């Protein structure tokens, strides 16, 4: 199952088929879980886990789960004894859109192991077994590639505490498919938005800016960040607008020497000398009595 193709097919399917927002949310959650499981045919997941991932109540979860089954988008089997239900996602690209009934996870696992043993034993006898193994290897590589590609889904949930809606996923896929941005670049925009306390629209504006600048790899992002820091440093060093830098002139050496010369003692003025002489003369007359 190809994650991106299934998503795009789901958007097209929604244009002609009505589905509640809660059911859409559950379908995304199941796709996400099955992707992390490696796209196995059937898988189990507890209702409590789905409630946490979707934000739905137990009652609503069961209701929209039946809605998805009626729309032929999933199949599931409830189990007794507190066991988690068994789910199966129905691919848009399956040759038989009506899926076979789910038997059990244990039986499917046993069949898978038995098939592997038979292939390994008859590998040296028939050439068809070798061809089957090559096809299985190609399928496994496709699954690994697909699983690697949807890392942004995990990062989105981590940064924004929720799942992206269909429009947001379509935008993100467009950044990847049309603009050529790597998954790491998508995740980096989510992290920057989360660090700024913002949501997905902030990350989208970052992605638009990077796409215009031709930024496609995480190395391009780091280079852009370094250039941005250099520009900020240059702006700090420039004088602010409206301020005139103070011009300083280098003064000659003799100016500093003149400033530090000791001051010459001031000579008493003629007026002070005259008054002092008159005072002395008066004192002499008083002493002589006359």
From TrEMBL:
Source organism superkingdom: Bacteria
Record region (Disordered): 228-290
Signal peptide feature range: none
DnaB/C C-terminal domain segment(s): 160-224
Pfam families named in the record: DnaB_2
Amino acid composition bias (Basic and acidic residues), ranges on this chain: 247-279
InterPro entries: DnaB/C_C, DnaD, DnaD-like_sf
PANTHER family, sorted: DNA REPLICATION PROTEIN, PHAGE REPLICATION PROTEIN-RELATED
The family this protein is said to belong to: Belongs to the DnaB/DnaD family.
Protein name: DnaD domain protein
Organism this protein belongs to: Cytobacillus praedii
